[in-house]
Fold:
Amino acid sequence: MEKSFIDQFMLANADNLDKSKMQELISKLEELPNSVSDQLATLQLKKPLTNFIISFFLGNFGVDRFLMGQTGKGILKLVTCGGVGIWTIIDWFTVMGRTREYNTEKLISLINNFKGNAIGGNAFSANRVQEGDGQIPKIGE
Structure:
């Protein structure tokens, strides 16, 4: 991938990503083909400040955990009213870092998905190529 796109992408998303993994992300992005740059440019990352505000006002109900995909913890936080408020207060100090980690893991997962499709393809396209008749393969074939 072009260095200028990587620099622009990292600059635009620096506040939303884990700073300790920036070099790892840059090296992984450099290995990707230019064809995935459009998909990366439209990637929706969560804003740490927005999640902090949500946690501050709706943390007792577990909304911040639900937004991060932590359904179990969200339900537990909802049932216990934020751990009688203690869990909510702790989350005020950790929610921004957890949001950055969530975004970083989301980006790494997407990069690995692109790499996997570029190297091995997916089972759907592999079956279609092997059959050679242009038919959509049936499940289980």
In short: DSSP finds nine helices and no strands in the chain.
